[in-house]
Amino acid sequence: MYSPDLQCRIIYVKMENGKLVDDKGKGDIIIKGMFTSFNELECPLPSSDVSKGAVVGGFKISITTDGQQYSNEETYIIFDSLCQACNDDGNCTLKPNTCEIDTQCRRKGEQNSKQQICNPSVSKNSWTTDQRVQEIDHFTASLTGCLCVDDPGTFTCACCQNAGCPCASLSPHQCVDCTHTDECGKYPDVFNI
To answer: For the segment 95-108, what is each residue's pLDDT rounded down to a tens digit?
Structure first.
């Protein structure tokens, strides 16, 4: 029902040991709610930790019309769908061919500035050193983020450096020496993401 004292209580939740728990460090916040209709209310939500790089987060939301009694809490889960699959109960699992490293989602083959890669067959939670990446990485700056030469308007292909050439559709996440395009696709376990 409408009330000038309509408020939303928002409690931050975070993932801990595979379960959503209250984020005691953030406490809860009270925000003025907006009555929309007899069965709808709007509660403006603050930024979640997922927008700041966390993999899973969310809020428990309840409402009050008098500031004393609150409704049952509803949980709102926010997660990075690149590497997480979450159900309604807040149970989240890591998707295949992904890693969760330094509380961020990484695709198989994604690399850091130290030329280490996400290799979920070795570790789903830490970077893996792979000599093949160090040998061929001279031309590949990143596995995604640049314009695909064979699909204009799409920016999901490798970014090249040191005058490297993209491998296009054969191996879109790999760059090679332009005079050795026969190297394209040679390392599918690294560049097939």
So the answer is: 998 898 888 888 88
- Segments of the chain assigned E as strands: 7-16, 19-22, 28-32, 34-37, 40-42, 56-64, 74-79, 84-86, 92-94, 98-101, 104-107, 116-117, 128-129, 140-146, 157-160, 164-166, 175-177
Tell me 2's DSSP state.
-
Quote the CA–CA distance of 88 and 73 in Å, as a whole number: 14
Q: What is the mean pLDDT of residues 84-105?
A: 85
Question: What pLDDT is stored for residue 9 in this prediction?
Answer: 95
Report the residue count for the chain. Answer: 193
Place of tokens 């009694």: 69
Contact criterion met (CB below 8 Å) for 155 and 143 = no
